Amino acid sequence: MKIAEKYYFFLNPYKEYAFTKCPKCDGKTKVKKFPLVIFIEKTKFVLNLNKTCKYCPYCELIIAKKEEFKPMAEAYDVKVDDFFIYGTLPIEVYKQYENKQINPKDFHKMAIPFKDVWKFEVQPAGWYPATKSDKK
After folding, report:
1. Which domain holds residue 87?
2. pTM of the prediction?
3. Rounded (10°) CA dihedral 122, 125, 129, 133
4. Tens place of pLDDT for every residue, the chain, 136 residues?
């Protein structure tokens, strides 16, 4: 049985940008908790983390700050770049996992993969010289 993909994901590498507006549609982002499924490639370990993220309900985009994963990476003696954030868990499955009703080896089978992982580049505010396409 193939699980339907859900949500788009952006791992925000910028410490100084919180993305209070969606980088795709420019709408206001919300704050929401998501049970993220994370594979640590170096150790072949699967983690489940209920993480507060920015979320655009219109684009279905989850934005997580890369900086906030550093303490967890240090705890597992790996780099954040060794993480592969695969998707989310249904909240019911996450609650069963928290109550130890599901074997940790099995919850990754119930994970909902992301539709796609997006990357955005930020141009800091300021004055920039006009380009040829700006002149008319």
Report:
1. 8-117
2. 0.84
3. 50
4. 467 889 999 999 999 898 999 999 999 999 999 999 998 887 778 888 899 999 999 999 999 999 999 998 888 888 888 889 999 998 888 887 777 777 666 666 788 999 999 999 887 777 878 776 555 5
Number of domains in the chain: 1
CA 54 → CA 15, 37, 110, distances in Å?
Answer: 14, 17, 23
In a domain, 50, yes or no: yes
Domain presence at residue 2: no
What values do phi and psi take at 49, rounded to 5?
Answer: -130, 120
